[in-house]
TrEMBL record:
Domain called HIT: residue spans: 7-116
Protein name, as recorded: Protein HitA
PROSITE patterns linked to this entry: HIT_2
Short motif (Histidine triad motif): ranges: 100-104
Origin superkingdom: Bacteria
Amino acid sequence: MVKDDCLFCKIVAGTIPSQKVYEDDQILAFHDITPAAPVHVLLIPKKHIDSMNEVSQEDLPVIGHIHGVAIQLAKELGVDQSGYRLINNCGPDSGQAVQHLHYHLLGGANLGALTGISSSHA
């Protein structure tokens, strides 16, 4: 399913260009146009899902696939050993700006200093 008014669905359809780093029949990964870190890639399912709250049982395999591809991309982009974050924002208070399920793969910098969040705050 594709939503006509969704920015990420338009990227999947190719009507809005992106700098792709990975694509298969289920997901697309591309560089964020306003990166928050030296490595900032967005990973999205090609099927439109508004947010993590709308993930159904049948969607779980694609969620796992996204995580597997994120691991692969972290290696390819050279941040697997230094460290990276895989973030999913869900809902307006989280900062989810596009209503299409997506993950941010961030790395290439000290992300604790970048965002003010570290494991010591957990």
